[in-house]
Specification:
mainly alpha, 2 domains, two-stranded antiparallel ribbon, two-stranded antiparallel sheet, 4 strands, globular
Length: about 525
Amino acid sequence: MAAPRKFPHTWLIIFILIIISATLTWFVPGGEYIEITAPDGSTQMQYQPVQSKAQTWEIFSAFFKGFTKQSGIVIFILMIGGAFWIMNHSKAIDVGILSFLRRTRKLERLKFVKFLGVDNIIMSMIMFVFALFGAVFGMSEETIAFVIILVPLAISMGYDSIVGICLVYVAAHVGFAGAILNPFTIGIAQGLSDVPLFSGFEYRIFCFTVLTLLTIIWVLIYARKVKKKPQKSVMYEEDEYWRNRESVNPDEIIYKRTTSSWVIYFIIQIVLIIFAFIHPDTTLTIGDPDAAESLRLHLPALPILAGLFALLSIPLLLKSFHFFILNILLFTILFLIVGVMGYQWYIMEIATLFFAMGIVSGIAMNTSGNKITKLFIEGAADILPAAMVVGLAGGIIVILEDGKIIATLLFKMASLMEGTSQIASVGAMYMIQAVINIVIPSGSAKAALTMPIMAPFSDLIGLSRQATIVAFQFGDGFTNMITPTSGVLIGALGIARIPFHKWFRWVAPFVITLLIMGFLLLLPTVLMDLPGF
């Protein structure tokens, strides 16, 4: 009997795509968009042909250039992996998962909860929160840090790693697509289209609700199948890694108090008090922080967090250092939210925050400096394949950019809309954005490239610019979940240990469903008189 054919490794798939991209540079004419100023002072993007640069030996240097291009995400993944490896050594996360599951099972005594299913309620709430984060402040790269937490949680609940990815990554990116106030997509697109910032949010709330409900239902149906028959999971064999890693015997965990955890508590508390005095008031911004129209909330966020940390830590310290470390994790997440919304943190600040979390967790469990260093290196080594593949995936974009053909592909696709009806045009814009997103996964970069072209074109055919913006946000969001050029997707899959081909096979029907739903949600922007449109 012939041996079963093995599907190509993720690295090989990406390298093949690099070769295909390099081949295109030999046949697709070069081009670029330049900004020109009209007599009335307005600016617009105009396409002009340039000499393409055929890529040959560059397919081998693409890994180095891609690694350099994606270096921020690569380092972010390594630091997150090392920090959580230290925390995992304390068994604090295991304690947290066991306590969480024990408490949630008690809720099944309530008839209403039992009817809905306590797991369904928990997963729905988690997905809604992350979808809201994606819709409001554009959570994307941040999801990588939560994959390490939620994949083990999903496995412990009897599901698989795909469910774990869906709880955070998929939920956040569906919210990103159905954005309400996302400054990286809606904010930039509306600014470039001369549309009032965050106008039309009423219909976007409706779109967000529909897309989030669709996602929750889709994931819960799949999760139910896996729970009923785990062998039906496409990740059943690969998830053996997580099942073995997370199969902790509660009786093996020794609950105890440590002097070092009290020392860390006082050090953290002093630092928090200092920051509370330096920043007594924080402006939490929902939307573009540079825009006057954005919603701003002025709160004493840091003093509040400092006070809560002081109150919650003491009873947890008296129980065991495990619960104190969990409290550190909780406040790390809370400070992440305040940092992103109040101080425009990005991956450097977030990686630094989690790095500090890992170090103080190691000290709190009374671990020596040498042991903490060894654990961090082990964690970074364990996550290294995921970080490396992010750099390789970045090589695809490098080849297309260096070959000077991205603008030409956009120009040719935009030319297809000439002479079409409004519905056909908005549908074509939608599909163009979805296709472009496969090679340019950055929402802000794609907005800067496409909206100065699409917005004036929509005026010529009598289409609302808001409809064009909705087509952009849907097209930008849904295919994020299948594009191998997305460092965030490849990083999240790498951490969850999900091969790209298995992920693609699972998520493709869902993405197609989202694309169809997106087109249906676009129709009212053309056929109805909507507020702000």
